[in-house]
Write a structure and sequence with these properties.
The structure is a single chain. The chain has 13 helices and 14 strands. By secondary structure, the chain is of the alpha/beta class. It has helices at about 5-20, 45-50, 60-70, 90-95, 100-105, 135-140, 150-165, 175-180, 210-225, 245-255, 270-280, 305-310, 315-325; strands at about 1-5, 25-30, 55, 75-80, 115-120, 145, 170-175, 180-185, 195-200, 205-210, 230-235, 240, 255-265, 290-295. It starts with a strand and ends with a helix. The chain folds into 2 domains: about 1-185, Rossmann fold (3-Layer(aba) Sandwich); about 195-325, Rossmann fold. α3 (about 60-70) runs parallel beside α4.
């Protein structure tokens, strides 16, 4: 086992896949000589050359459009959107085109591309470098949406995404890049897309989350354990297709459920999870399903007090856990 950060795991996954398959190439803003704004592709240009490490103009619509064209013609592009906040000009290409290629051609064409997007707050990024945009893509059939939170998951799921025959939106929380470290096998491995993971076993409640919030939930669960409450933490890992069976089975055992997500509360991923639990595990519940998320404001502010007000924290999550445990 090697210990590495989430960012190092992402980089290693791309390196291994580019060395394995000559059809895999990377493209995006500043990814060549600079190695990417987070250095995820540092050294790639020197190893693979300009034909497979393509610095693009500052035009997200062309990044996604060119990636789609390459994908339907047999290549396996990894397109980087420098920050998820900048993806909006490429929405027609990703949501309107890539997601529909298999369906629209009766399965005769595929779009095996990965769109990597650093997302999320807590990094003093302000309005245009802090957004959580997962629900927009998870809502669209035909897109796979992945949001890992550990180095092990990031590497195994990114390799799976690169080999998938459908378009994948691969979300990487910026705050986990260098903050989160973990063991990663040195031998080859791939994780299944669409399978959640129980990060902590417990019997008193089920807490469902993904991305950075998983780590906050785990920290909160450790606090509650000292108080005699054992929370089970389920990491979705894949947002579309979502693994309903894993979190439903957990809720049926614990009889209480909380969904924690960083995005605006209304119409978020948590609404879908809560609705699924209410529909399919209603008779197992001893309390209403709790949604804990960010406020319904247009964006996360730069000022530290406002950013802290928007962002969840282990303390906020622990307080909500206590309320649910006492219900």
């Amino acid at each position: 086992m090697a210990v590495m950060t989430v960012l190092e795991a992402v980089r290693q996954a791309m390196l291994e896949e580019m060395r394995r398959d000559s059809r895999v190439f990377v493209m995006g803003e500043d990814i060549g000589a600079r190695g990417g704004v987070f250095l995820a592709t540092d050294g790639f240009l020197q190893e693979f050359g300009e034909q497979r490490v393509i610095d693009t103009p500052l035009a997200e619509s062309s990044i996604a459009g060119i990636a789609i064209g390459a994908a339907v013609n047999g290549m396996r592009p990894i397109a980087e959107i420098e920050f998820a906040d900048f993806v909006w000009p490429a929405m027609n290409q990703i949501v309107g085109e890539a997601s529909r290629i298999r369906y629209g051609t009766n399965g005769n064409k595929f779009a095996p591309l990965v769109v990597r997007m650093p997302y999320g707050g807590g990094v003093r990024g302000g309005l245009y470098h802090s957004q959580t945009i997962d629900v927009v893509f998870a809502h669209q059939p035909g897109l796979i949406v992945i949001a890992p939170c550990t180095p092990y998951d990031a590497k195994g799921l990114l390799k799976a995404a690169i080999r998938a025959d459908d378009p994948v939106v691969f979300l990487e929380h910026k705050r986990t890049y260098r903050l989160v470290r973990g063991e990663v096998p040195e031998e080859e491995y791939i994780l299944p897309i669409g399978k959640a993971d129980i990060k902590r076993a417990g019997s008193d409640m089920t807490v469902v989350s993904y991305g950075l919030m998983v780590h906050y939930c785990l920290e909160a669960a450790r606090k509650l354990s000292d108080e005699g409450v054992e929370a089970e933490v389920v990491d979705l890992r894949t947002l579309a297709p979502v693994d309903r069976e894993t979190f439903l089975e957990s809720v049926r055992r614990t009889s209480k459920a909380m969904v924690v997500y960083e995005d605006n509360r209304t119409y978020g991923i948590g609404a879908e999870i809560a609705a699924t639990i209410a529909q399919d595990a209603f008779h197992d519940l001893d309390a209403p399903v709790v949604r804990l998320a960010g406020p319904d404001v247009p964006a996360m502010a730069f000022a530290p007090p406002f950013e802290a007000e928007f962002m969840l924290s282990p303390e906020k999550i622990a307080a909500a856990m206590r309320d649910l445990a006492a219900y």
